[in-house]
Write a structure and sequence with these properties.
The protein is mainly α. It has one domain (25-109). Helix content is 59%, strand content 0%. The protein has five helices and no strands. The protein has helices at 2-12, 28-35, 41-62, 76-89, 98-109. α3 (41-62) packs across α4 (76-89) and α4 packs across α5 (98-109). The termini are far apart.
Length: 114
């Protein structure tokens, strides 16, 4: 009985139309001025480590070649530092979306043997 009453009240409650959220994408400028500017090393490291993990998972589950080959004991901070350094060396790319920046930075910093 309580469950029925709770459902009846919930279903009779007025509803409001919720606006759809606007998609916001990180860019190189937002990485450089925010996440990867040296003040938030842990956030930049987590972002870069996520890309490295994603590359590893995709390669293991879908097959294909490895895109980046960091040394076995590379730290997330090292990965984040590679992104920060790439952004500093490529200021003309700050209008790019963050995803290709992080991916390209890690591929260039940790190239795989041919």
């Amino acid at each position: 009985m309580i469950v029925f009453l709770t459902m009846a009240v919930a279903l009779s409650a007025p509803t409001t139309k919720v606006k759809s959220p606007t998609a916001t994408f990180l860019t190189g400028a937002s990485l450089m001025n925010g996440v990867c500017n040296g003040s938030y090393d842990a956030a930049c490291a987590a972002l870069a480590a996520g890309f490295y993990d994603g590359d590893s998972v995709a390669r293991l589950t879908l097959g294909g070649s490895q895109l980046m080959c960091p040394p076995p004991k590379v730290s997330p901070l090292d990965l984040g530092h590679a992104v920060t350094m790439w952004l500093q060396k490529n200021p003309d790319k700050q209008n790019w979306a963050a995803a290709p920046i992080v991916l390209r930075a890690l591929i260039e910093a940790y190239p795989c043997p041919q």
